[in-house]
Amino acid sequence: MELGQDLLTLGILLVVAYVLGRLGKLIGLPSIPIYMIVGLLASPHSGWFPLNFHSADIELIAVFGLILLLFSLGLEFDQEEFFDNAGKLLISGGSYVLINMGIGFAFGMMVGWGTREALVIAGMTGTSSSAIITKLLIELRRLANKETPMILGVTVVGDIFIAIYLAIVSVVLSGKTEVWPIVLQLGIAFLFLIVMFSLARWGGKVVSRLIRTKDDELFTILFFGLAVLFAGIGEIIGVTDAIGAFLIGVVLGASTYRAKIERVAVPLRDVFGAFFFLNFGLALNVAEFGSVIFIVLAAVVMTFVLNIASGMLLARLNRMGVVEGMNAAGILVNRGEFTLILATLSVAAGLDHLLQPFAGLYVLTMAILGPLFASRSERIGAALVGGRKKSAGLPPPRDRMHVEEIALVEAVTAKPGASDPEADLDIEADTDADDDAAGSQSIPTGDPMIDFITEHRQPPKKRHDDRTEDYS
After folding, report:
1. In this structure, is the dihedral angle defined by the CA atoms of residues 324, 329, 332 and 334, taken in order, positive or negative?
2. CA-based angle 280:130:325, to the nearest 5?
């Protein structure tokens, strides 16, 4: 009977998530905050849901969701794009990461948390959500925009940084204080990173042969099993299950079966990922939000200011304008799954318990404000550019017919040898039917202005496609 009640409760929660998700789409919200809100409503800490449901009931499914989220992130990692433009991407992406992470760490220290907590805060506030970025670029139809390659390049560098950052954070959060054990664990972590990235770079053909099968069912079992297997390896050697799943995703993404894996992995990621965000919401306690609300508001303001400044810097580095810089800021400002992953790791490591409500409220706020800002970034950038042009004193646009009349008069009164390309084109377009040969006579139309122009105009220059001999 208890199993039936759990299934009933979970089914209701997923249906509620669907209804709220449909409503959220109307105002441009992504699915991540929707799932968290549903979990928050059903949390035993809130008491707003009539049926009893606990986080432990779906904990293993939530772990699968975390694994598939990072696996998909590694699968989408474009190593060709990275290695072909490594210098430019490292400058752009590195600048973004250093600015946001550096000030995020200082922010964590300023609000009174310790060094380890500040390191986690830096990751929470300094890393964008690849899942939300990808969805926004598609939903806002900006894949063909000028700034999109720059945004994706920064995301690629961010993915690499996440791998290195998680390896370091896992060692820091382990609580070890002796130097040599820390050095040994860091060495193992970086060796794991190097081996997996090298396999992805040069072992794509070998991996393709090993995973080759025509049976879709067995193929799905294989890649899911590999994701779980390497997540376990990552957890055992001390680089967390998330980074193990990410790295095997990078390796499989280098194979010839990347498109096939994505076709099957994306629906699985969406389903299991929903459980991860739902589970995180279940663990939140609304009563704790009051103790971190001012810190969250300060973090939100800091994140927007830093991302607008970073977006403009990226646009300048890539020789783009204000609109492109504002679009980049609007897309990259979004925070999501990685912030929640860090919160989960910090709770497991026994850090300050307020990090979890901070992460929950911060992601809820950013996942709502971020997409709203992104959907309006083009108009904001255009308004800034328009304001600059207006302040520069540019003349207002003139009436089109008035401009054409002036061009006609200038063409008539121009000196021999001087011509206006637009006027010449307009005159030729109006008189091609009348000028079949040199010296043809103009027929009066009754309009004094047109008769004056056709009588005194300059002879057209000879073109390659003219069939007459000479107009001079």
Report:
1. negative
2. 130
> What are the structure tokens assigned to 100, written together?
């946001």
- For residues 222 and 444, the model is more confident at 222
* Token digits of residue 142: 């900006």
pLDDT digits (tens, 9 = 90+) for 336-365: 778 888 888 888 888 888 898 999 899 889
pLDDT digits (tens, 9 = 90+) for 154-166: 887 887 788 788 8
**CA atoms of 167 and 162, how far apart (whole Å):** 8
Q: Among candidates 297, 332, 298, which has minimal Cα distance to 312?
A: 332
Q: What average pLDDT is seen over the chain?
A: 79
**259-294 tens-digit pLDDT:** 899 898 889 988 998 888 888 888 788 888 899 999
Nearest-5° angle of CA 62, CA 20, CA 9?
50
Residue identified by tokens 């083009």 is: 378
Closest C-alpha to 127, from 323, 346, 307, 276: 307
Residue 243 C-beta-side C-alpha neighbours within 13 Å: 28
pLDDT band at 328 (very low <50, low <70, confident <90, very high): very high
For residues 134 and 31, the answer to whether their CB atoms sit within 8 Å is: no
2-17: buried (b, 16+ CB within 10 Å) or exposed (e) per residue?
Answer: eeeebeebbebbeebb
pLDDT in tens, 173-182: 776 667 777 7
Distance CA 428, CA 29 (A): 55
Instruction: Check residue 160 and give its pLDDT.
Output: 79
Task: Read off the tokens for 305.
Answer: 């200011």
Write a three-state SS string for 8-73. HHHHHHHHHHHHHHHHHHHCCCCHHHHHHHHHHHHCCCCCCCCCCCCHHHHHHHHHHHHHHHHHHH
Dist. CA 227–CA 246, nearest whole Å: 8
Contact 119, 106 (CB under 8 A): no
Which secondary structure element, helix H or strand E, spans residue 299, and what is its range?
helix 289-317
Phi and psi at residue 142, to the nearest 5°: -115, 15
